[in-house]
Amino acid sequence: MVKIIENKLIDAEPLKDAVLIEGLPGIGHVGRVAAEHIVEEFNGEKVLELYCDDFPPQIVVKNDGTIEYMKNEFYLVKEPVPMVIVLGNTQALSPKGQYVLSEKIVDIAMKYGATKTYTLGGFGIGKISDELKVYVASTSKELSEQHKELGAEFRTDGGSIIGAAGLMLKFSKLKGIEGICLMGETPGYLVDPKSAGNVLEMLSKAIGFEIDMKKLDERAKEMEKFIEKVQMQEQGMQAPQHQDDLSYIG
Amino acid sequence: MVKIIENKLIDAEPLKDAVLIEGLPGIGHVGRVAAEHIVEEFNGEKVLELYCDDFPPQIVVKNDGTIEYMKNEFYLVKEPVPMVIVLGNTQALSPKGQYVLSEKIVDIAMKYGATKTYTLGGFGIGKISDELKVYVASTSKELSEQHKELGAEFRTDGGSIIGAAGLMLKFSKLKGIEGICLMGETPGYLVDPKSAGNVLEMLSKAIGFEIDMKKLDERAKEMEKFIEKVQMQEQGMQAPQHQDDLSYIG
Amino acid sequence: MVKIIENKLIDAEPLKDAVLIEGLPGIGHVGRVAAEHIVEEFNGEKVLELYCDDFPPQIVVKNDGTIEYMKNEFYLVKEPVPMVIVLGNTQALSPKGQYVLSEKIVDIAMKYGATKTYTLGGFGIGKISDELKVYVASTSKELSEQHKELGAEFRTDGGSIIGAAGLMLKFSKLKGIEGICLMGETPGYLVDPKSAGNVLEMLSKAIGFEIDMKKLDERAKEMEKFIEKVQMQEQGMQAPQHQDDLSYIG
Amino acid sequence: MVKIIENKLIDAEPLKDAVLIEGLPGIGHVGRVAAEHIVEEFNGEKVLELYCDDFPPQIVVKNDGTIEYMKNEFYLVKEPVPMVIVLGNTQALSPKGQYVLSEKIVDIAMKYGATKTYTLGGFGIGKISDELKVYVASTSKELSEQHKELGAEFRTDGGSIIGAAGLMLKFSKLKGIEGICLMGETPGYLVDPKSAGNVLEMLSKAIGFEIDMKKLDERAKEMEKFIEKVQMQEQGMQAPQHQDDLSYIG
């Protein structure tokens, strides 16, 4: 059993015909950078946090001596287009946790008025490339064709979409709403604002809003600085010592 | 707790005295190729899909921009012999998931009228061989002897049958029906139509049907092309980044 | 949740003041060889089998074409001393499974009349040694001292007893009966009849029975032959292929 | 589901406005050494033991032939300051176990009167250093500032606090009491009494008690000797053999 705690921060009115947008951590942090930018530019209001006992068993230490929990967060944006945006500092660790959490996120977003789901992610190509494509995969052929007309391409590698970005499409469909995943090609940088910008541009065309891109790079750089610092600090660490003794007999 | 979702596609009448045939992914995809060939040749009708939160937490992207879930599928064949055929693109990931899913598959098949179980698989020999044997193991000595008379051999390696192909025999027996596993020797190719053909031939003799083998190679080649493409694409990928920070204190 | 299926084979009367003896697989198969020898010499009657979905998800193929489940088995011995003996071809895989199964085994044995628990195991020393000691650890200082007088020694390595051999002592104590673990030093052979003989000798002195050791070596050799054959066969095998596609986006 | 057994040893009266202090195993055993020293110096009374089926599936063998369970222990200290101290020889193994156990520990401590939580741990710096800092992170900015005035510093690495030391802060806050983690820099020794002393000094200033440090080194040396012996013994051990046969077909 995976336990999820909902921590409602504000009693918000549901939106009308909102778009659920997922931007959880993933390759190149493409979806996360794109979704955070939307929240910042359109003054998203944080309404709810999710905690889950399938998240990494830890807390994050902040510069001011306070702590932050591992969490997924829901933001509501009313203008220019109603959106329910899901951010966070982690995804679930186990397969079961991934399934349970993805379903829960779709459930909650639908309560906030979501009637369509966009999941945003990176598609690692493992090499530098001048032109970074945006791919689309969705729960209906018609929807995918619509995004193709906007410039997105179809993947022909036969591969998969792992984690919330994939499973939320499945649970959207099972619960009666359509789901689209936009994947931005990325060479595989730690944080890739260029790929995030490409995905964001495609999303804005698809949903129909305009967004100022000026601060996107700046925000991505801040995220990168933070993640780099954490990685350096990790290299000086030792593995935890959970137990005294492991010798065998039996 | 392993959660299984049954997605019934068609309200089908149960068959009479049907044979349950399992062809899930495994070594050389021997069982899968054989079972898919039966479905294709005898126009099997897909009646039900199973989803499970112990499957890999992902979805598959198709060439036309649409998506496919990780799933196990039930097909009914009425002629020449009533059969309930189980295909799929995955098996459960954890030991518990393997047990729960294998039991569920036998349960559902029995509701569709199955009174005997055949599981089909490959037996890797790790070397090229001119003659590829077919082995049999079953829930009764009598049954195994019957297949020996048809040309199958007994394994003397003391080894095991891992996954659904093994556990479905156990749950068949516990629920009161007999179970037989046919294993085709395979050098260990990605997809081995020759081994699949051998298993299929043995099965057709055992159950009593004739089947056209002309398209078997062709279908196996398509499956191989797909699986190869996926593997190549994987090599350009990076591992997912689930969390920001992993430094230790405690 | 770990699911355990009890398959009662015979309606047996509980014994009076029986000794529970555990001989599940472990290092050098010391406990297993010793406990199987008791069952064989004293004509133990198999009364119950346990299956568990935390066992390896597989079945074993036998030379005669039939199959064997992964299982733990209960045998009753009435003479010369009442004993409930637990054998098996596996232990549980996960920590939780180990705990749940160890508790269940003690529960069942107590229903069959067990009022004291002996767990038997090997203690790997990683080198050849002329003299192979037998160690004792138990739930009471008094009991351990009694076995010391019979020639057993105390371990001073501060190490642990992993698996059923350790946890069954804990659950015996929590349920109100004493528990003793006898550990035979073993260089770490695949199957070590010499170490098993040492443990058996200590056990017979402690409980008070005489047992013919003539066939011990022979039985250990058969077990070794079987296990070796399995290991050789494994080396020709490939890893299972559970899924088609593992590429990442998210 | 993670199962926790509470073994109450004494019917103790709850304390008034007690401080919960966590000293479970971790890097440099910093928190454990510090917390054990408090228990010893102030004659803490052991009132309760916790067992959990997400602990390592083993028991510990002691020099006198008796055994010890894997456990977390609660001690009450009345003077000079009411304290509920949590020691133990292990932490939970899985993420879920970590979450469930951390919540349970806070629950129990609150029943014993805890109104504030201190978790103690090491912060590995991976190099020798003359000056070993003590860091603080807490559930409120005000609290962290108070400890800064006492000489503690804030971490700026953006990293995490893994395990009970982190999660107990989260559950303290969710249940309405404040939580502070004190982390002593440590080069990463097996057992680091110097770092433990630094943490202890900070804690005594923060809570307001005086403690004799004379025996701290001695106790840390004993713990180190024990842990070293275990590690040496482990190197002579072989991995457990859980099953007979692992060959594949399916």
Automatic annotation (TrEMBL), chains A, B, C, D:
Entry-linked Pfam families: PAC2
Residue intervals passing through the bilayer: none
Domain of life: Archaea
Gene3D superfamilies according to UniProt: PAC-like subunit
Entry-linked NCBIfam families: proteasome assembly chaperone family protein
UniProt-recorded name of the protein: Proteasome assembly chaperone family protein
Organism listed in the record: Methanococcus maripaludis (strain DSM 14266 / JCM 13030 / NBRC 101832 / S2 / LL)
